[in-house]
TrEMBL record:
Domain Thioredoxin-like fold: 61-156
Every Metaxin glutathione S-transferase domain range: 203-264
Organism: Crassostrea virginica
Ranges annotated as spanning the membrane: 12-29
Top-level taxonomic group: Eukaryota
Family indicated by similarity: Belongs to the FAX family.
UniProt cross-references to InterPro entries, sorted A to Z: FAX/IsoI-like, Glutathione-S-Trfase_C_sf, Glutathione_S-Trfase, Metaxin_GST, Mito_Protein_Transport_Metaxin, Thioredoxin-like_fold
Full protein name: Failed axon connections homolog isoform X3
Keywords carried by this UniProt record: Membrane, Transmembrane, Transmembrane helix
Amino acid sequence: MDSIRDFVKTYSREICISAAVGVALVTIIKRRKKWIKKVYPANTVVHHQIGRGPHTPSITPFALKLETYLRMAKIPYMNEHDSITNKSSKGKMTWIEYNGEEVADSEFCIQYVNRKFNIDLDKNFSEEDQAAARAIQRMVDEHLYWTIGLYWFVYDLQHGVDIATLLNVPWLVVRLAGNMIKKQSYSQGVGRHSEAEVQHVMEEDLQALSKFLGKKKFLLGERTCSADCAVFGMLAQIHWHSPDSESVKIYKKYSNLGDYCERMKEEFWPDWDDCITHGWTRKATK
Ligand SMILES: N[C@@H](CCC(=O)N[C@@H](CS)C(=O)NCC(=O)O)C(=O)O
Ligand SMILES: *[C@@H]1O[C@H](CO)[C@@H](O)[C@H](O)[C@H]1NC(C)=O
Ligand SMILES: *[C@@H]1O[C@H](CO)[C@@H](O)[C@H](O)[C@H]1NC(C)=O
């Protein structure tokens, strides 16, 4: 102990200088990205999202939803896999920019590109169908989402599922995500339920989706609508990330949902295999 104290005393100046240099270097590296302003091609939607997932093109349902929509609507777009460090103006991890304009929230992104490119993929459906699709999109994005997040990052973890390997993210990230989801879902409300109750409300959502879909190809029939993107983005996470979990057992009871996921994948992701397996911070390199 004494020798350490002596060392610190003798070299205190050097220690301080190295620490200061270290902090300065880290700051410069962090800021560097802000100094070098990237130039993106004009009239192209730049989708800022996290890296590719190991089993789905994104482990973020909202990113998979938005990218599926950009494909469905045939919008010229590119991905920038930077949103771990470069979040939206609302602090979330999927957003777009277009000719320098930035838009946060997947649903607002969809409405924005609809306006810019003068697109309405839902116009041929009846008002009643469009309203039902809206209600389903909200159920999935604002309710089912929390139950899946709680399963992945809280309950599955408690039951010994190796969610870090499954999602190909470091353990620390899983822990941090767990804390975040716990807090956020508590505020939202779903996180106040017991695990058995969360399981119950999750099943109610999945059952409603399954019944609504029935024997149809897509939510509203033979043709896809924009809400299919939200449903696919979310269900894909259960469908392709299958931990040994109660949530997956429930999902598997509704087999038309699984067929639906495969259909959506076939329709919009012919390059699926090239868009997976290469890490949560980076794009796929295949
Ligand atoms: N309503 C938003 C939801 C986005 C969202 O919740 N994203 C999560 C990841 S799946 C996120 O960024 N969480 C980080 C945080 O809340 O700090 C959308 O549709 O884009
Ligand atoms: C985040 O993205 C915006 C828009 O492209 C860019 O101007 C900004 O420099 C980026 N920030 C960082 C930290 O990369
Ligand atoms: C809507 O219907 C018209 C007429 O059948 C068709 O030409 C058009 O492609 C349809 N639009 C969409 C977005 O499905």
